Amino acid sequence: MASITRALRPLSRTTPSARLASKRLATVRPIQSAYAFSTTPRRRDADLSELTPTPISLLSETETMMADMVSKFASEQIGPKVRDMDEAETMDPSVVEGLFEQGVMGIEIPEEFGGAGMNFTAAIVAIEELARVDPSVSVMVDVHNTLVNTAIMKYGDAQAHRTWLPKLSTGTVGSFCLSEPVSGSDAFALQTKAEKTADGYKINGSKMWITNAMESGIFIVFANLNPSAGYKGITAFIVEKGTPGFSIAKKEKKLGIRASSTCVLNFDDVVIPKSNILGEEGKGYKIAIEILNEGRIGIAAQMTGLALGAWEHAARYVWNDRKQFGQLIGEFQGMQHQIAQAYTEIAAARALVYNAARKKEAGQDFVKDAAMAKLYASQVAGRVAGSAVEWMGGMGFVREGIAEKMFRDSKIGAIYEGTSNIQLQTIAKMLQKQYTN
Ligand SMILES: Cc1cc2nc3c(=O)[nH]c(=O)nc-3n(C[C@H](O)[C@H](O)[C@H](O)COP(=O)(O)OP(=O)(O)OC[C@H]3O[C@@H](n4cnc5c(N)ncnc54)[C@H](O)[C@@H]3O)c2cc1C
């Protein structure tokens, strides 16, 4: 069967290589969504009026190369390991090494710091392509690129860039540590404290649900430096693995994305130098909000890729392998309608994801678009992965194929980086503001 991605995005005849691709910055073509279904005003200083509208799924040459390269790496290098990694609930170190070698751990990091120097949409298509094969690997790349790298690029000073970015793009995985046992959706109720020392800061507290923790060497940690100021005391710090007092207290056993590590971290009198602050004191809440707004587009891409991976797996089976009543089961109209409906929903989710990514790149307000993309893509992932199991009958239910894994993995899309209720709240709040006289 022809590749679905190729049906949805233009072909690239160039040899895939992110490193090669990085030699030229991606050409971004902002979509004139302000004239279509956009409800956010266009940024005043960006005049897009001369641009010809293009299909939202049209990628630049470098973005296409990234998609092709990651797709090849995922199917050849990750695919054969997916089942074992899921059963062992462990990320194979060779996969992590391969991700760094391919240049997908520093997609937006400038070349001078060892990164690929590409744009946000290149990261989005990489996350999507990885999720088509393994959502666990996809979330590792997503958190590392869209949360950790972005936070340091955006809020770190020149010294922070020189210190952390080369490590993050060439061999050290990163984690983003906001959630705690007492603070999930209400993230800024966090209890981890920081205090000033003579030449730095001391951190005490616990973090929960931290993705990549087993593999990471660099942790962005949110702690309150001035609890009497409430959320305005929250500050972001960088803690390295091996710092005395830092420990991984527990690795969670999960329903899905089992190869992705999710851990509880303890900080007992963890002393860090002054230079390990990220951004300004008391501005951690702003960093967390802004970074997560962008990060949500990454999770939406992960869910879109997951849905496509599950759909493709089942489509191949019903249209090639399984016959009942003397014909392929995918030839029954009852099946065909469901398969077409699911594919349409995936395409719609993808359009929301790319639109949010392009709006971010164009400097437009994208917060509502990111929330809608994450909400909808996680709903589609759940529906499509569930249908894929059913379309394959008993073969979908057993742990031989990937349908049951995709079904389990899909649930996380409605939980992390803001639950579905929280996305709905964001969307409703922005709409209400817009429609209140
Ligand atoms: C596998 C995994 C990986 C994660 N990775 C990370 C990570 O790397 N870094 C990190 O900081 N965090 C991470 N998280 C944490 C994640 O972001 C939180 O789990 C999420 O924000 C929800 O918080 P909670 O689990 O405490 O649920 P709760 O906040 O307790 O929510 C429980 C339910 O109540 C609903 N609810 C809560 N408040 C409202 C409201 N105001 N209105 C309506 N409904 C509401 C929610 O929608 C949800 O259905 C991860 C979580 C998981 C499971």
Task: Kindly estimate the percentage of residues that lie in beta strands according to DSSP.
Answer: 5-15%
The helix count comes to: 14
User: Strands of the largest sheet, in order across it?
Assistant: 1-4-5-8
* Radius of gyration based on Cα positions: 22 Å
Percentage of residues in helical conformation: 40-55%
CATH H-level superfamily of the largest domain: Butyryl-CoA Dehydrogenase, subunit A, domain 3
Present as ligands are: flavin-adenine dinucleotide
- What is the CATH fold-level name of the largest domain? Butyryl-CoA Dehydrogenase, subunit A, domain 3
Categorize the overall geometry. globular
Q: How far is the first residue's CA from the last residue's CA?
A: 53 Å
> What integer is the average pLDDT?
91
- The ordered H/E elements are HHHHHHHHEEEEEEEEHEEHHHHH
Q: Unreliable runs, pLDDT <50, ≥5 residues?
A: 1-43
CATH top level of the largest domain is Mainly Alpha
Explain what this protein looks like in three dimensions.
The protein is an alpha+beta fold. It has helices at residues 4-8, 18-21, 61-78, 82-88, 93-102, 120-133, 135-155, 158-170, 284-321, 333-361, 367-391, 394-397, 403-410, 420-435; strands spanning 173-177, 193-196, 200-211, 216-224, 234-240, 246-251, 262-273, 277-278, 323-324, 327-328. Helix 9 packs antiparallel against helix 10 (333-361) and helix 9 (284-321) packs antiparallel against helix 13. The chain folds into 3 domains: 61-172, Acyl-CoA dehydrogenase/oxidase, N-terminal domain (Butyryl-Coa Dehydrogenase, subunit A, domain 1); 176-284, Butyryl-CoA Dehydrogenase, subunit A, domain 2, CATH 2.40.110; 285-435, Butyryl-CoA Dehydrogenase, subunit A, domain 3 (Up-down Bundle), CATH 1.20.140. Helix content is 49%, strand content 14%. Bound molecules: flavin-adenine dinucleotide (FAD). Homotetramer. It is found in: Mitochondrion matrix. Belongs to the acyl-CoA dehydrogenase family.
